Amino acid sequence: MRFFITISLLFCVLLASGQEVDKLHTRNKKAIELYKEAQSLDHVGNYYKSYNLLLEALKRDDSFDEAILLTHQILIKRGELEKALQLYDEYVEEVDQQFKNRMLADAAYALFSEGKYEQAKNLKDQIEGRVLGLDAALFEIVTSSIDYALEGSANPRNIDFEKLPAPLNNRSQQYFPSITASGLLVYTVRYNQGRGDENLFFSQKDGEAWSQPLEISEKINTDRNEGTASISADGNTLVYTGCNAPDGLGSCDLYISYREGSDWSKPRNLGEAVNTIHWESQPSLSQDGRELYFVSARPNGEGGQDIYKSTKQNGKWMEAVNLGPSINTRFDDCSPYIHPNGVNLFFASRGRLGFGGYDLYETEQLGQGEWSEPKNLGYPINNHRNQVGYTISIDGWAYYSDNHFDGSSSLYRFKLPDDLIPKQLVDYKQGLVLSAADSTPLFSEIYVADIAKDSIRSRTYSDFESGRFNLVLPQVEGANLYVKKKGYLLYKEEVDALWRNGNETTTIYLQPVKKGEKVILNDILFELNSAELSKKATKELDIVVDFIKDNPELLIEIGGHTDTTGEEDYNLNLSTERAKSVLNYFVNKGLPKETFVYKGYGETMPIEEGISPKNRRIEVSILDIK
């Protein structure tokens, strides 16, 4: 699934010569023959036989520039950088300036990739004039990154990296962690030092301790590869990568599964809106499970691997869109992580200023499809090795994996510095949904709406078996929580009122639908002396529309009420017109007109004394159940 990549794509581009055969700097036919054969072997990764052929070519013409350059590049690919530098010293007086510059650039980038920034800068600064085979943009990335890394590593952040304790890290390879708000860690395990099957495991955090890691589900893990998972912050939705499955569209596809009590539902391929015949992997779900960021190697992107996004609308995943050049570069961009606030995106890239390999960056969503300039997370969070597969807990810990020289990998974490913690924070709340009739647990939909800003801020579901739910939501004032279940009244309460005095758990009782029950809608507001619905009111009514669609057997009265401002007759007429406006809105939304009656009550049924805004309300009452 492309996790442990040791040779940078940028490095591969650097080491591609691109010199035409008819322009070779030699007339020795045998030397040309040997060079062409060595070049073919180099293209298929046979660096040892090609190297010996090049030595034979140089015996026939030791001023053969292309053979000298290719020998230098092959030594770098073989990991023999010192020998490559010796070759440069040996032939530096023989080669043309552009070949000399290319050898300096290749060696400088090799040193940069090993974290030897000072030595890399020394070679880079010797380059004068044109560099053979490198365009200006690529050369600018290389040289600027060397300077950037040298300066950044001289001013490191104060970071303490912690290896996660036992019983975690009990396998040879574990990587790509994803964590919920409640501390459930899901990650990939690969058996037999990378030569075996990949499966998903989980462990629950309790204080500073972790539970024994277990396989996530027999419904998900198979004898094929399942990995790189993302679990939503509420713990209800899982998206993961499955490779070579019978229902797959490409080599690796994205699959989705939903929590069902203590187990998971049968996984489902996300289909052609997300997957292609190409490679898709490395998903990241938004906190409510309705936005999916992922990586694809499909063509016609910005270049290499790109980051894409699909949005779930009306229960269906929409066609994935490329995040565009503000995020994606001409090289590989991958490993997205969308913070639970839905605003801050962390990702890895090889195409920006960095410290070598994949670096981590952070950007902020400014508007629809608009992102701020990505910011490098700095040294030593980033170094000359690959940084991919990060997830961030709501309390500001970054979880990741690191590779060891023996091929194994382990899970780690570090506390994000204050300047990297997203400004828009999130709250974590827990609750329980029960039937008011008999206190049995209820599976229900729970969401938080900020009606004033016309947005759903969070959405989750209570557990099938226990009725418990985990709610992750941005810190907003005045937001309402709604609980919806077919056969029960729509529940509404202010978020702050539900979790008073810092309590993190609350119990919500849903009233079964029955005659005479009322839903009071205080947010159905009107301008003074007007029956025209405000924009805020229509958003509140849209929530009621969904409730009525779920319960089509109801006969409903729409009751209008006013406060005591104005004459009694005037208030009665005004309340009737307002109730009629609500009826018309419902009908325009496709609800049958025969479902409703409407009536104005004026100021006759106040729920608070005096001139109170709460008296200016709409009530939806259940007259009968068909």
TrEMBL record:
For this UniProt record, the keywords arranged alphabetically read as follows:
Cell outer membrane, Membrane
Could you tell me the superkingdom of the organism this chain comes from? Bacteria
Work out whether the entry's keyword set contains Membrane. Answer: yes
Query: Where does the chain cross the membrane?
Result: none
UniProt cross-references to InterPro entries, sorted A to Z: 6-blade_b-propeller_TolB-like, Bact_OuterMem_StrucFunc, OMP_bac, OmpA-like, OmpA-like_sf, TPR-like_helical_dom_sf, WD40
The record's GO CC annotations read: cell outer membrane
Q: Name one Pfam family in it.
A: PD40
The principal location of this protein is membrane
Q: Which residues form the OmpA-like domain?
A: 513-626
Report the locations given in the UniProt record.
Answer: Cell outer membrane
Question: Under which name does UniProt file this protein?
Answer: OmpA-like domain-containing protein
Q: Which organism is it from?
A: Roseivirga seohaensis subsp. aquiponti
Taxonomy-wise, where does this protein's organism fall, top ranks first? Answer: Bacteria, Pseudomonadati, Bacteroidota, Cytophagia, Cytophagales
